[in-house]
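User: Let's play a game. I give you a shape written as tokens, and you guess the letters that built it. Ready? Here's round one.
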């Protein structure tokens, strides 16, 4: 498969986490920022992207019928207890003809069409790919309360999303996702399957909104304020 052969593609947007660190009464992905809920920034970008054929949105099971978004490209599924359980549920309803799967976190609202295309292209060419940021700080490995050694930062990257992989390994991927072993991201699954994972270096902002400080920063960047969802 060449880098241009990633269609049909399917994007999975993971929006089923609890997001307790944000400190809101409701999950952070449903808090409004810049006029719409956090997850909508990523969802709208994926739905509007010409590189994406279908989008699967994974939300808490109790919210599936409350989303109310009508779009022919969109499917909505209930997420699971773990990140990988939500991806498993998405793979269960994914079109069989899908060639490349792109996974993105709803907490990263600055995704661009250029990044989507770059990650899909790299995944189609190599088997899997991740967006990642270079680490510019000097990084130390610790042993207890003391420095053990200094790591070579030229070889270190902070993994981000989107991440993508060829759908041809879907069966083996689902077997790993449904097991007891926990995976913190999709590339860890690919590593376990010995699939090469290419790194796409992110040059622009692709920050993850984790706590209220991040919400404030992202709100300024999006030129609006934060509005917490009303609890029922």
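Assistant: Ready! My guess for every position:
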């Amino acid at each position: 498969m060449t880098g241009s052969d990633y269609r049909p593609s399917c994007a999975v947007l993971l929006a089923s986490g609890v997001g307790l660190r944000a400190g809101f009464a409701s999950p952070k992905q449903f808090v409004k920022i810049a006029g719409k809920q956090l997850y909508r920034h990523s969802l709208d970008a994926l739905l509007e992207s010409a590189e994406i054929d279908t989008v699967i949105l994974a939300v808490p099971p109790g919210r599936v019928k409350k989303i109310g978004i009508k779009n022919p490209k969109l499917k909505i599924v209930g997420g699971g207890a773990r990140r990988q359980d939500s991806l498993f549920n998405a793979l269960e309803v994914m079109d069989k003809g899908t060639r490349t799967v792109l996974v993105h976190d709803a907490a990263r609202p600055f995704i661009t069409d250029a990044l989507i295309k770059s990650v899909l292209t790299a995944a189609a060419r190599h088997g899997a790919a991740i967006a990642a940021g270079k680490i510019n700080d000097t990084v130390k490995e610790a042993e207890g309360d003391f420095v053990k050694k200094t790591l070579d930062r030229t070889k270190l990257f902070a993994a981000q999303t989107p991440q993508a992989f060829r759908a041809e390994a879907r069966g083996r991927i689902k077997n790993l996702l449904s097991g007891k072993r926990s995976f913190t991201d999709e590339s860890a699954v690919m590593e376990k399957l010995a699939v090469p994972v290419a790194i796409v270096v992110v040059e622009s902002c692709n920050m993850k909104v984790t706590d209220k400080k991040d919400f404030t920063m992202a709100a300024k960047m999006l030129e609006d304020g934060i509005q917490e969802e009303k609890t029922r």
